[in-house]
Amino acid sequence: MSSGWSTNGEQGRPHAAVFILAEPLAPGTPLEVMLRFERHFACSLGCFRLAVSDRADAAARGHTAAEEAALAQPVAARSAADEALIYRRFLAAAPELAEPVAEIRRLEAELRGGSTTLVLRERPAAHPRPTFRHHRGEYLQPREPVAPGVPAFLPPLPVGRPADRLALAEWLVSPGHPLTARVAVNRQWQAFFGRGLVATLDDFGLQGAPPSDPRLLDWLAVTFVGDLGWSLKRLHRLIVTSATYRQDSAVTPALAARDPDNLLLARGPRVRLEAEVLRDSLLAAAGLLSPRMYGPGVRPPQPAGVTEVAYGSPKWAPSAGEDRHRRSIYTFQKRTAPFAFTTTFDGPTGEACLARRDVSTSSLQALTLLNDPMFVEVAQALGRLAAAAGPDDAARLTLLGQRLLSRPFADDEQRLLLGFLTTQRRRLAAGELDAGRLAGPEAASAVEEVAAWTLVARVVMNLDEVVVRR
User: Fold this and answer.
1) CB 260: neighbour CB atoms within 10 A?
2) What residues contact residue 395 under an 8 Å CB cut-off, 6+ apart?
3) What is the DSSP letter of 46?
4) Quick check: 256 and 250 in contact, CB under 8 A?
5) How far apart are CA 168 and CA 147, in angstroms?
């Protein structure tokens, strides 16, 4: 039934309805009222009252119980609070104020609807929710009550304070807590080096791996809390400017024999970039990455048909303008149809929370960097930059090397790439390749030259050094 009376969309506000019976009821006739709540399996009414009347002009004014109680009082007996309540209700109902009241209601609806989302709200201190141990995990068999607390081997909660969420939050970041800072710095270390000082990123317990360097883990944790003031940006700067991180990843026979798995970081880290970092770095290299922050999610281009497997077959309309190339953190997430590029490069689907991603190498990853619409646009932008970079091919190739590798190409690399460029120019001149499609709609002039350098950019984007931190 979809034609009944409902409060949907106006939860938290008073409502009233008048139902006129087709035939009057005789005095003393039993009257049964049934309320059905079938939306989201939840009751949408906090409380309700019923009233009956034999008047033909009976109407529901929408007064709250407090307003009706104040109106029922004799004028001389009304308190100042009663008078204020009645006056406020009068202002909300006065025809002369209908326009500003409607604007107030509109602004209130916006505030409730989209600008904020309630995530957690502490229950009233006088009405805590009791917690029990459930026998054998059966939720219908609560046994002895369980009081809030923390593991005995860790520092206790603050003394003289209620054991609530605020106390737990303060306990987690207190200087005497040994675990939070160590877990935090270990996660950041893993992001930069591909492996945490504690390899089991999601398990610091007895079944987890011991730290490869306990003193370094302790020093980083203490420095993070004290000198760095819990600042992740300052921690990142400390790590990336260290001699350990700035080492070359090349391995010598002596280093391989002494530290084959690089647990002691005798050489620099060599690990493939995570999906979001890889996408953002290529967009930045091409000069496309938008620096704008905040706002709703955006939809970068991706192959057609990805979202057709999702419930309802939603359409993925790529964003236009600056939103097309915003940072990956703003990419709209659809749990049943994750962003195709992210999953290709081992990003999680959103169905489970992962502390550490697996890292794989597959042919599909190379095909994605070559053919995904998003990376074709990156190659086209690099092609336009290279074609306009200088008077000769060497200068143009140097620009690509600096943007994608942060270094010039070696002599043998330059020779191979220039040979590839010559071949592509010949194919374009012969009509084997469509220069217009390769160069893209942004190429206003020298279309064949832009197309040729677009093809070279695609090759460079697929070099191991582009996708691997080394």
Assistant:
1) 10
2) 389
3) S
4) no
5) 13
User: How far apart, in whole angstroms, are the C-alpha atoms of residue 210 and residue 88?
Assistant: 66
Segment holding 107, helix H or strand E: helix 98-110
Residue 145 bridge partners (DSSP): 132
Quick one: tokens of 469?
A: 């931190």
| pLDDT tens by residue, 139-196 | 889 999 998 889 888 899 888 888 888 889 999 998 888 899 999 999 999 989 988 9
Task: Output the pTM of the full model.
Answer: 0.70
The 10 Å Cβ neighbour count of residue 259 is: 14
Contact between 382 and 372 under an 8 Å Cβ cutoff? The reply is no
Alpha-carbon dihedral 173, 178, 181, 187, rounded to 10 degrees: -140
Indicate the domain borders of the chain. 14-112, 180-258, 271-470
Between CA 308 and CA 316 the distance in angstroms is 9
Whose structure tokens read 């794989």?
360
Distance separating alpha carbons of residues 221 and 228, to the nearest angstrom:
10
- On whether the CB atoms of residues 338 and 302 are closer than 8 A, the answer is no
Exposure string over 218-247, b if 16+ CB within 10 A, otherwise e: bebbbebbeebeeeeeebeebbeeeebbee
Give whichever of 69-78, 309-318, 346-355 has the largest mean pLDDT. Answer: 69-78
Distance CA 62, CA 73 (A): 18
pLDDT, one tens digit per residue, over 251-260 is 888 888 888 8
The Cα–Cα gap between 319 and 331 comes to 10
Helices (H), 15-79: 65-72
